[in-house]
Write a structure and sequence with these properties.
The chain has 136 residues and is an alpha+beta fold. Helix content is 43%, strand content 12%. It has a domain at 5-28 and 90-135.
Length: 136
């Protein structure tokens, strides 16, 4: 089962669930903030299992990449692996905003409305919609 933070955000008092459309940009001003949030949700404190070391290790951010490396051996992990964000060229900020829009309405939101709100192309909107459907 793939991981999606948006389900947790609806059930707990987290940074994402305390956010509304007016302060969403300040909560997640760039892709770096989104990646850091995702990392903390998946690997609290940056500590996770290192396959190479075969034990829990602290990981640090790799400059210029959306990845974290083991402090001991340098083996890399990505918080986006196994999520709807994996192998996506769409920015994390747009993903977060689209998920916010989907979760903030009682009866959902159309893919066309997400396209209007985020300014993405028809092709990107279709890719996002299919990933949402596949992982939900």
């Amino acid at each position: 089962m793939a991981y999606c933070w948006c389900y947790e955000a609806n059930t707990e008092h987290s940074k994402a669930s305390q956010t509304d459309s007016r302060n969403l940009p300040s909560a997640f001003p760039d892709d770096e903030a989104c990646l850091e949030y995702l990392k903390e949700k998946r690997y609290p404190g940056g500590i996770t299992y290192c396959a190479k070391c075969q034990q829990d290790r602290k990981h640090h951010r790799v400059t210029g990449r959306p990845a974290y490396a083991c402090d001991y051996c340098g083996s890399m992990i990505s918080p986006m692996a196994g999520t709807i964000f994996e192998k996506s060229s769409t920015s994390l900020r747009l993903w977060f905003y689209a998920m916010y829009l989907m979760g903030s309405t009682r009866c959902g939101i159309s893919a066309k409305q997400i396209q209007r709100e985020t300014g993405v192309t028809y092709k990107t909107r279709g890719a996002c919609s299919s990933r949402f459907a596949r992982f939900s």
